[in-house]
Amino acid sequence: MMEQIYKYPRTHHIQGSRLQPGDEDLDSVPFSAIQNQYVVVEE
Fold first, then answer.
1. Could you give the CA distance from residue 6 to residue 18 in angstroms, rounded to a whole number?
2. What is the pLDDT along the chain (43 residues), one digit of tens a residue?
């Protein structure tokens, strides 16, 4: 019997970032939507 796989919510891309294979269903977030807010940038 296979165990259940728990998936975490996917992180949206910021405007101008390059999409990776499998990210075609994600919309990028425009800079205007995150203006004056804190963001965490991951590599």
1. 26
2. 778 887 777 777 888 887 778 777 778 889 999 999 998 887 7
Q: Which two tokens stand for residue 39?
A: 């963001």
Residue tagged 């891309």 (tokens): 13
Mapped onto helix, strand or coil, the DSSP state of residue 32 is helix
Write a three-state SS string for 4-20: CCCCCCCCCEECCCCCC
pTM attached to this predicted model: 0.52
Residues 6+ apart with CB under 8 A from 20: none
Helix (H) or strand (E) holding 33: helix 31-34
